[in-house]
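Lab channel / #folding
Pinned by the channel admin:
"Please post every new chain as: sequence first, then the structure tokens as a reply. Keep commentary short and put observations after the output so the thread stays searchable."

First post following the new format, from NK:
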Amino acid sequence: MNAVRLKRAVHDHPRRTPVAHVITRPCCNDASCVTVCPVNCIHPTPGTPDFARAEMLHIDPVACIDCGACVDECPVDAIVPDDLLPPDSAFPEMNADYFRGRDIVRSWTPPRPAHASGPGALRVAVIGAGPAAFYTSGELLRHRGVTVDMFDRLPTPYGLVRAGVAPDHAATKGVERTFSATASREAFRYFLNVEVGVDLTLDELRARYHAVIVATGAAADRALSIRGEDLPGSLAATDFVAWYNGHPDHADDAMDLSGESVVIVGNGNVALDTARILVTDPDELARTDIADHALRALRQSQVRHVTILGRRGPAHAAYTNSEFQAFASLSGVDVIVDPADLVLDPRTHRDEQARTLDPTTATKLRLARRYAARTPTGAARSVVFRYLTSPTAILGGHDGVSGVRVSRMAYRADGTGRVLPTGPETTAPASMVIRSIGYRADPFPGLPFDTGATVIPNEEGRVTENGSPIVGVYVAGWIKRGARGGIGANRRCGLQTAEAVLADWTQHRLPGPVISEDDIDAVITERRGHRIDAAGWAAIDEHERAAGRSDGHRRRKLVSIDEMVRVAATAT
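Reply from TO:
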């Protein structure tokens, strides 16, 4: 159900008594719904200890008054009245679990009033065009006298929302509407298809703006550092995700899907996205915005079995419950969990016995046990979740991968949740191995970099070198705090960075630009760059949407930068 139909159904659906609203799978956890709830029934709220750890937000079914304010505010259409959900939906139960036996801190985050203007105009350059960049820009633009110019090396904005969110998660991509609203402000300008470090330098931006915010994300992968990792057919999930999402850097990648078995190392949400795309009926994917080249390859795919490896047990799985639960609705796919894998560490076992287990972990265990209790149907495709299993080597030769050697893990008895290898190693057959053990950032030219944490050193968003702030330079998003947290986590991160910029501005800590930014277009052109502005992006956006409408897609993505530049040039 699309956003307009859903909201109409929410407000027009006849019922005699109020019903509770339920937050469902697309939840981006940006907490925009919290500020509009008149009875403070959405939790956890920003500022409470649980918020930073929350997989998603929850609505108290007892306190909810069925006003629908949160439905209109939600950027990803994740909030639905419980009587509009299918009978087998797990979300009402997950929602209620959060509040069962919990003492709720009835804090509330009021809307933030716009500040009065500071000392003159504040010109800000934002490098990057993903969620952190937009949340930071949106907060800055609430204040009079602020202008924002956003730079990104790609011709298209939205970062991992466009190139990272799985194509069958269209509702999650609805957050683009929030970003588009920010970009529509008169005080905002796009400088897309402009690479800082090539078309412009960081120092050139610093000379033209009061503040420069680096929000370039963390798009590189982490290595397993085991033998055979560099064999053909062994690849990073970051590359696979970028390929099926049509990222220009990976549109020409060759993915060999001719084998029957794929092993995915890691069990976070990206691993689950990857597995789901591999086993979903291509006819279903054809209705999404998946890249055409990926859809063609998946139609020819011989992959029938996907195994997902996790080092620890189900209580410590990195995926969110909503993504795990979604596998229950995959058609033509058996989801297999070996009951012998459902081993708990001593602390989790003790808490479960005492009925003090936190609700998120309790739900993880309940879902895993439900999958384990299923009898396989003999479906054409299968996804196997293996816990307490770690790869020790990738097997194969110059012609490709043939399998993965894995070690059985066991929990230490010290209650820390740490694991160690035990028992003989076994071999899992595989024609492709996809590592999905996290993202990392690369250094940004001209700024210090913490290679261990893979972040730019900073204090609350202010970039630091040797412990001292670099005046006028800030960071936001994964390159600021590390590659953790989903889309919504970038909202609070961006607010913090914006507040640091505004505080420095109002307290006269930002020196004025020494050069006007009016010459930036000339500098870019002189270096043979081709800036794409808001009109150019609008032309690309409409081109993709129109191409999609012709055959039932959400959009048909352009994957060539040259073609994007040509389409953008048609803008008037």
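NK: The CA atoms of residues 264 and 434 lie 5 Å apart.
TO: also worth noting, Confidence is low (pLDDT under 50) at residues 1-18.
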